[in-house]
Amino acid sequence: MSEKPEEKSTPAAAPKRKIGGLGRGLNALIEGSYEKKSERLVSHPVNSVGLIAVGQIQANPYQPRTHFDQEALQELAESIKVQGIIQPVTVRQTGTNTYQLISGERRLQASKLAGLEAIPAYIRKADDQQMLEMALIENIQRENLNAIEIALSYQRLVSECNLKQEELGDRVGKNRSTVTNYLRLLKLPPDIQIGLRDAVISMGHARALINIEDTEQQLALFRRIVAEELSVRRVEQLVRNGGSSASRPDAPEAQPVHDESLHVPVAELRRTERHLSERFGSRVLVKPGPQGRGEIKIAFDSVEDMQRILHILQPA
Asked: Membrane-spanning regions, if any (predicted)?
């Protein structure tokens, strides 16, 4: 009588692990380090990344940037809702469950707008001077920072962090001449600095104006640049000629920035120009024409500057 072969039991298949959808950012990688119910911080060592409650992160007192475009912040908040935080903010621990932001102010503000309770943060050790230096350098590396903001940040690094211009160039990845050119902008009259900050003139215009010693001539040529929309090359020619024609009496008055028949408010056009100038980091002019037509002009100072703008224009 033949024996019935012993049946081998097949092990039950392990249940498939459900993979969460994409778009959760770093939260998905460090999930569990933040306990939502108790709203308390789970201790994280220095030089690690962990989830930290937004209410436990204090603002950086050394933050050099005080103005943030609210429309851009809202756009970032919408992106965070979908994609999560792609790059963690950087903080230092100041006490039990309290942290101070080193860099990532926009990400923190946008996260609050997006309703996040906790965000990923890199915890590192830093004293007050390192806080200032890191905040300034991170701010300088932003693409849409205007030239005056960069110059002021350079000046603070030199004066408050006791850096020489050569050391400063090494820290921010620029040569000494570039650093010097930015610092020289702070010698311009306040009206011209404001014009550069608000993208009324470009960096090239400002660098040409620096070479005029007389303040009144600088201001006169600045007004002419704005009124006649002079190119950088034309301004350089005027400066080489001694700037004698900068304040000529027959200089035309500034033309209206829009066609009245289009009923486009000047203030709205200026807001649009400022928004675009911040977006591209260059002077932008919006010039409406008849029948709803018009043009948008984006200024650039070099081939590298043009390539930077083209990169921004490329679809994501």
From this structure: none
Asked if 209 and 239 count as a contact pair (C-beta separation under 8 A), the reply is: yes
pTM of the model: 0.50
Tokens 């989830």 correspond to 51
Place of tokens 């937004």: 54
The residue behind tokens 């965000």 is 119
- Cβ–Cβ under 8 Å, residues 97 and 121: no
Name the maximum alpha-carbon separation found in the chain: 124
Residue 258 has pLDDT above 50, yes or no: no
pLDDT of amino acid 57: 93
- pLDDT, tens digit, 9 for 90 and up, residues 94-136: 888 889 998 888 899 999 999 999 999 998 887 777 777 777 7
Average pLDDT, the chain: 75
25-126 folds as 3.90.1530
Does domain 143-187 bear CATH number 1.10.357? no
| Residues pairing with 50 in the sheet | 121
Out of 3, 7, 39, 105, the active site residue is 105
Three-state DSSP class for residue 170: helix
DSSP SS3 for 52: strand
Residue 310 CA to residue 316 CA, distance in Å, equals 12
Q: What is the pLDDT of residues 132-190, one digit of tens each?
A: 777 777 767 665 677 888 888 888 888 877 778 788 888 777 888 888 888 999 999 99
Q: How far is 33 from 146, CA to CA, in rounded Å? A: 38
Q: What is the pLDDT of residues 225-257, one digit of tens each?
A: 998 888 888 999 999 887 545 444 444 434 444
185 touches 147 (CB < 8 A): yes
Ramachandran angles phi, psi of 185, nearest 5°: -60, -30
Helix (H, G, I), strand (E, B) or coil at 123: strand
Assess contact for 59 and 99: CB atoms under 8 A. Answer: no
Bridge partners of residue 91, in order along the sequence: 101, 123
6 part of the active site: no
